[in-house]
Amino acid sequence: MFINPGPGTAKLVFEGKDGTKLEETIHEFEGEGVLQGQHNIDKSIASFARSCFEYALDTKQDLWFATKDTISKKYDHTFKDIFQDIYDAEYDAKFKDAGIVYFYTLIDDAVARVMKSEGGYIWACKNYDGDVMSDMVSSAFGSLAMMTSVLCSPDGYYEYEAAHGTVQRHYYKHLNGEETSTNSVATIFAWTGALRKRGELDGINELVDFADKLEKACIQTIEAGKMTKDLALITDEANPTVLNSRDFIVAIRETLDKLL
């Protein structure tokens, strides 16, 4: 971040290892202002692209990628070009064999499409877009605390987490002995996702089956009308049973016992 104290020219200077210098004017300031710079390397963008393509193949879901290359004509457009080049060279045939498609569009168009869609695809976003849009979608369709997150590397490493992070305010209430009604589904699904992947990698079918049934227990508990306050505020159920955090988890356990 650069703070400009007054009129002047902001320039970007790049010097290569061979001493060659490239200089480009970024902006002509007529007064005070602020300038933000960001960078990436092609290797990192390519790694991101391959992670997305591999995950789409692994889950057999269509892949959407969206940027704002009409505004960010160099930075965002580089992402778009690298994604397309890698797809054409390495994944076109694989996607066709799997019966899935790769789709690129502008981020604002993607938002409009997503809000009217039924889901069932992967939406690849750059970091800032992903933070904003994932929270928007989860809130519009239900509860942020229901959203899971999977981090996937091109080398095949996976990390499962609750996308909403920690609920700090509720945690402090819990430490003080106060009752909370925190939705724990995303945290549970983070565990089931990790357990299922471990079972798949190690060939432990019982572990995969347990993960499937635990997720099913969460869904059945909510469909039976037992839920935390965030879901009770938006449900179509006439008289939902609003549970605190502990009782909600206990209700899921009771449902799970019937499935095991």
What do these coordinates show?
With about 260 residues, the protein is an alpha/beta fold. Helices cover about 50% and strands about 20% of the residues. It has 9 helices and 11 strands. It has helices at about 40-60, 75-100, 105-115, 125-140, 170-175, 185-200, 205-225, 230, 245-260, and strands at about 1-5, 10-15, 20-30, 35, 60-65, 100-105, 120-125, 150, 160, 225, 240. The strands form 5 sheets. A 3-stranded parallel beta sheet has the order 6-5-7. Strands 1-4 form a two-stranded antiparallel sheet. The protein has a two-stranded antiparallel ribbon with strand order 2-3.
Report a brief summary of the structure.
The chain has helices at residues 42-59, 75-98, 107-116, 127-140, 168-175, 185-202, 205-223, 229-232, 245-259; strands at 2-4, 8-15, 21-29, 33-35, 62-67, 102-106, 121-125, 148-152, 158-162, 226-227, 241-242. It has 260 residues and is an alpha/beta fold.
Structural class: alpha/beta
So what's the overall shape? globular
What is the count of DSSP helices, taking H or I runs of 4+ residues? 9
Average pLDDT, all residues: 88
The count of DSSP E runs of length 2 or more, i.e. the number of strands, is 11
Order of helices and strands, N to C? EEEEHEHEHEHEEHHHEHEH
List the helices and strands and how they pair.
Layout lengths: L1 E3 L3 E8 L5 E9 L3 E3 L6 H18 L2 E6 L7 H24 L3 E5 H10 L4 E5 L1 H14 L7 E5 L5 E5 L5 H8 L9 H18 L2 H19 L2 E2 L1 H4 L8 E2 L2 H15 L1
